[in-house]
Amino acid sequence: MTLDYAHLAALAAILRTGSFEGAAGALGVTQSAISQRLKMLEERVGMPLVLRGTPCQGTETGRRLAAHLDQVGLLEGALARDLSKLSPRTARLRIAVTADSLATWFLKAVAEVPDVLFDLVIDDQDFSADWLRRGEVIAAVTAHEAPISGCDSLSLGPMGYVASASPAYMARHFPNGVTAEAIAQAPVLIFDAKDRLQHIWTSQNLGVTTTPPSHRLPSATGFVEASLLGLGWGMNPEPLIRPHLASGALVPLLENTPYETPLFWQSSRLLAPALAPLTKAVRRVAHSHLK
């Protein structure tokens, strides 16, 4: 089976913009042309590729085919560096990255790679590798060390976290110290349903597993702001709160109880030469920012 790249481009544009209208505007064609190209592609592969809705979403096969187009663009970009007469499509790299990495160091790395468009998928460090397993991204920042099939795994260093809160919060919820009984009642900040850092820290340092009242706040910088405002305690990335710890605006729940999550860069082995500039930038920036 051969694939028509104009049809793939229509599919990728639908998934990127979330609508047939948005895809038409992005590619400079009519909406009916987008619909026709998708129909022909779906007939070619023999299955649905887009789940119609607001926004439109890709089926598993649809997402993999869109990722394939990105891989082709990346390879063409690498080839164009050697063949000056070749005019490749702009490479678009879909990468799974943790929210804390995005908020602290990852953008500094991608800024060093010009002439590339990035489509960043945010997920927990324990789950970001799943995007690689499904073939939906070409690289991921993950806590998963063992190489995913077809990928290389490179150590980036540990992301440090500090269980921390404002002094006012500490005085209100832990007047007699941070105990197992008190922490079971004190509001905690969690990123999303996948976030287990608070539970792990509590188990390791207090020997209990609790389900305290919680605020769900899917933002690394929002986590810090909520901690400063006294909404709850949370496992804040140490690089983000370093100045607040120094000023006393935030304090550790317990002294000398940091938590570290080792991070790894997993990327497609087949695309390693084309990804080399990004991999080099990711490793250099990560090593300079992670503990």
Verbal overview:
The chain has 291 residues and is an alpha/beta fold. Among the domains are: 1-76, Winged helix-like DNA-binding domain superfamily/Winged helix DNA-binding domain (Arc Repressor Mutant, subunit A); 159-261, Periplasmic binding protein-like II (D-Maltodextrin-Binding Protein, domain 2, 3-Layer(aba) Sandwich), CATH 3.40.190.10. It has helices at 5-17, 20-27, 31-45, 60-80, 99-110, 129-133, 167-173, 180-183, 197-206, 220-228, 238-247, 272-289; strands at 50-51, 57-58, 91-97, 116-122, 139-142, 151-165, 188-190, 214-216, 234-237, 251-252, 259-268. Strands 3, 4, 5, 6, 9, 10 and 11 form a seven-stranded mixed beta sheet that branches. Helix 9 links the parallel strand 7 (188-190) and strand 8 (214-216). Helix 1 crosses helix 4 (60-80), helix 2 (20-27) packs across helix 3 (31-45) and helix 5 (99-110) crosses helix 12. The radius of gyration is 22 Å and the shape is elongated.
Question: In summary, what is this structure?
Answer:
With 291 residues, the chain is of the alpha/beta class.
Key terms:
Arc Repressor Mutant, subunit A, alpha/beta, two-stranded antiparallel ribbon, D-Maltodextrin-Binding Protein, domain 2, seven-stranded mixed beta sheet
